[in-house]
Amino acid sequence: MASKAVLTGTHFMNGDDACCEGALAAGCRFFAGYPITPATEVAERMAKRLPDVGGIFIQMEDEIASMAAILGASWGGVKSMTSTSGPGFSLMMENIGLGLCTETPCVIANVQRAGPSTGLPTLVAQGDMMQARWGSHGHYEIIALAPSSPQEMFDFTVRAFNLSERFRLPVLIMADEVVGHMNERVVIPPAEEIRLVERRKPTEPPGPGYLPFRPEADGVAPMATFGMGYHMHVTGLTHDERGYPAMDAKAQAQMMERLIGKIRQNRAEIDAWQAFGLEDASVVVVAYGISARSARGAVAYARQEGLAVGLVKLDTVWPFPEEFIAGLAGRVKALVMPEINLGQMVRELERLAAGRCRVELVPHPGGAIISPTAVLECIRKVLKEAS
Amino acid sequence: MNPEPIQAALPCHPQDDLLRTDRIPHIWCSGCGIGIVFNSLITAIKKSGLNQDEVAVVSGIGCTGRMAGYIALDSFHTTHGRAIPFATGLKLARPQGQVIVASGDGDLLAIGGNHFIHAARRNLDLTVICVNNFNYGMTGGQLAPSTPFGAKTTTTPLGSPDEPFNFCALAAACGAVYVARWTALHIRRLTTSLVEAIQKKGFSFVEILAPCPTAFGRRNQIRKPVELLRMYHDRSVVRNDLDPNLAVIDFAGNLVVGKFVDRTRTTFLDNYGLVNRREAPDWLGLEHERLREEKARAGAGQ
Asked: What is the span of the domain harbouring residue A359?
């Protein structure tokens, strides 16, 4: 049924729909979710599309249950996802932690709206970026991608599934209301041109010596799922390589090393950004998601004015591209970040610049996107003050 | 580190083939009823004749939640209250698998209460086993949704002001197809019920009244395990097929046990297939102009 799952062709669709199509193209066959503006369209399209490709859609009683169900489905051997927005994302935090601790591949799309609390349900924000990084309790590494167009909603959702299967963890798609609701051209390639990654399965037969959480050289353990005969134990308690609870500091250190190490040692596969005009830039705008489009407009205007400005669009936002940004900070006068919050990811720039260059935020409290003019004014101001 | 395994020094237990013997000794207190239920569950799994590769046990958090950690099957120890939604995903992703949820009263019906009622409503093909020890044992004996009115716990030091749930009535009202309650003393009947529940298609629920002398009994003048068991023995009465609404747990009167519900409803997955094949019934009854008798009697015409 590949033809039904991959809608090869050129479409005019919104970002939420494109997210759904990306998931189906990536092999997602289980969706559990709860309606919430502005992410509802992902669930609605899944409800319609999944039965046609042999998948299951279930509307759960809340987002806590939705997140738990997609973890269960993943251990049932099926690629799974959910979608939500701020209030639901808050409820999912508990079981995102369970997914991280039990190394469960799955994908969560957060189509951000303005908060805190119920906030502005129908209007844009990028206010959950630090929640994405640190929202579940305890220390961990997470992967989050930030699409800025319906096309990227498709492409990044495929990539999110690939990363989750490759590294065995929940991967977050940090979209926003504008990207979710805007209609644009989306090109879906033929199925055979979409690169898919599947979780590694254990090669040894089931038996007493089997260690379900023993990583291979790349830091990732192969994953047995329900029904394969391994009779493995999976727990959200701190556990050893057998998967057994181990209540001591040494076991905690070993598990944390595993959970964090598998991300840190594979940064080359995870990091992703697009850079424009960095060669001669004395000011670089660093942006992600919908704000990267405001930034692109501003940089284009600035360069028309002859200003030496570059752009970095972050495709992977977590883990943050530390080495790259630190290097950049050492050779430019200023980094500028527009984001629809009052300063979240800009803290990463400040941390990495460490005083070596100026870091300027173009903030927005939410409810509207940032105009290119606002970014342009900031660029002009910074350049003027630097000269 | 975990204590050294001691199984080498002991004779084999008849259930060793389904126990993670390298995790023994377990964490349960002396006099706890969970071991009895656990033994009964393993016996029931064996008696059910299932392919054991296709049986999964899912637990939440708490003393009973540790069952998943001791059974040598695919087993999942999830977050507090979320065993049922996790099991929902597991079952729907692998419908040929048999998914058993085993957890405590606080886990399933306080923090997990919302999931419980909706899974029963959907008639998901799950077997849900609830060990009811009337309090939160793992954290040292706090108020549970089952704690009797007036009973003492660490968070109700002068007695609980809350009225407890009747879990069986709740399960039945929400649509469970199999509902039974036993005490940890009714081992033979419990095992039979667990076999029936496992074999039953749809949402089946078995509640077991279990002693918790360590956390619950000692604050309520029933400190010795045998005293609690004697109370269960003396005060439990078997009332099979009783309306679960009438099957109350009244320590001063009767502890009503029995098999209360055994009926058939199509499961979520069956219904999912029906609607997606466009074979679902005409729920609005548009094809029939039906005279409402009640309205006719009331003189309201049609």
From this structure: 274-386
